[in-house]
């Protein structure tokens, strides 16, 4: 089991008001799975993804990743964990406008202090993998939305993460570009990548191997898709 969540709760307190974002979440994810998380706005999808990505901490409960308990780690250890294990794909791309596409993709490897030759090899491979090698020296503003999301996926996979987290990766794309992004994610999963994706699209959720439905901060159903 790559991921094991047990009794996860997330409470937010403001003055005298307490809001429950996640309530007693139990979720296991095996290495190599492609899991789509669905549910209405405000149901806790993004909070759950943020906890999986250690961007947020649970109020209580256990989060084990590869057998390691993450809730006990300090901020520096969590930052190191993210650099070594996680890749992120966001709805809004989150590319740095002042950097070229290859520089955007390379940045995470620079933070890991990887030798330049290895960085260049990995960046070239990631760009080729998602079909944007011909845009390497362009800036984000010179790319279409679909191309920017391809670049964001290349940035997510360049570090060879154990888990890819995708938050509405097709939310800002038209139907054709959304389908192309889903094709890339499916191909990555077929090659062994573990992916957890939040989506509002039932048709895209059906392309994952498993769908998890949430409501009011709880997992209400987890079903395997017939692909």
UniProtKB/TrEMBL annotation:
Signal sequence, start to end: none
Cellular component GO terms held in the UniProt record: membrane protein complex; plasma membrane
GO molecular function, one term: ATP hydrolysis activity
Keywords from the UniProt entry: ATP-binding, Cell inner membrane, Cell membrane, Membrane, Nucleotide-binding, Transport
One Pfam family per UniProt: ABC_tran
Organism domain of life: Bacteria
Residue stretches making up the ABC transporter domain: 6-227
Entry's family note: Belongs to the ABC transporter superfamily. Macrolide exporter (TC 3.A.1.122) family.
Protein's name in the database: ABC transporter ATP-binding protein
Organism of derivation: Gluconacetobacter aggeris
